[in-house]
């Protein structure tokens, strides 16, 4: 059964998450340097069947898109879609995911030194994005 991949796209580091086969839960997968993202996905997609990717949509509090990072995300989406046209790409508002991820790190008891690691923050953010998407889809059905 195909799974869904979640992406918290960052200029330097990109967080990744994945669903279980029944698409009920999201799990942190990895955080990779953004410059290596396509290579990682090419290798990953050889072993995992992915039907859809949910990428965070960065917005400001006034609901306007964050133009700078969105430009990079659009370039990635075009490049990915050319290589994998059958994989659906959806977007989800990612406002507050970094804050929620940071709060989660505190609740998990991670020490200050670990909380500074963007790798963990990006991976948790990607998981929050994907789990939010799953909840939204569940409410539709």
Notes on the structure:
This protein has 141 residues and is an alpha/beta fold. It has a single domain (3-140), classed as Nucleotidyltransferase, domain 5 (2-Layer Sandwich), CATH 3.30.420. Helix content is 47%, strand content 25%. The chain has helices at residues 37-47, 67-83, 97-107, 112-115, 118-140, and strands at 3-8, 13-19, 26-33, 50-57, 88-93. The chain has a 5-stranded mixed beta sheet with strand order 3-2-1-4-5, with helices on both faces. Strand 4, helix 2 (67-83) and strand 5 form a beta-alpha-beta unit. Helix 3 crosses helix 5 (118-140). The chain is globular. The mean pLDDT is 83.
Topology:
Layout: E1 3-8, E2 13-19, E3 26-33, H1 37-47, E4 50-57, H2 67-83, E5 88-93, H3 97-107, H4 112-115, H5 118-140
Parallel strand pairs: 1-4, 4-5
Antiparallel strand pairs: 1-2, 2-3
Task: Give me a quick take on this structure.
By secondary structure, the protein is of the alpha/beta class.
Coarse structural class: alpha/beta
Instruction: Indicate the CATH topology.
Output: Nucleotidyltransferase, domain 5
Mean pLDDT: 83
Strand content is 15-25%
Strand count:
5
Helix % is 40-55%
How many separate structural domains? 1
Features:
141 residues, alpha/beta, Nucleotidyltransferase, domain 5, five-stranded mixed sheet, 5 helices, 5 strands, globular
């Amino acid at each position: 059964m195909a799974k869904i991949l979640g992406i918290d796209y960052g200029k330097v580091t990109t967080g990744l998450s994945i669903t279980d086969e029944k698409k009920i839960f999201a799990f942190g997968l990895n955080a990779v340097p953004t410059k290596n993202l396509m290579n990682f996905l090419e290798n990953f997609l050889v072993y995992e069947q992915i039907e859809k990717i949910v990428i965070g949509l960065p917005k400001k509090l006034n609901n306007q898109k964050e133009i700078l990072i969105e430009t990079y995300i659009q370039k990635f989406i075009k490049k990915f879609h050319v290589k994998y046209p059958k994989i659906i790409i959806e977007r989800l508002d990612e406002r507050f995911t970094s804050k929620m991820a940071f709060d989660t790190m505190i609740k998990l008891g991670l020490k200050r030194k670990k909380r500074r690691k963007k790798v963990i923050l990006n991976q948790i953010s990607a998981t929050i994005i994907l789990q939010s998407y799953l909840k939204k889809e569940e409410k539709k059905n």
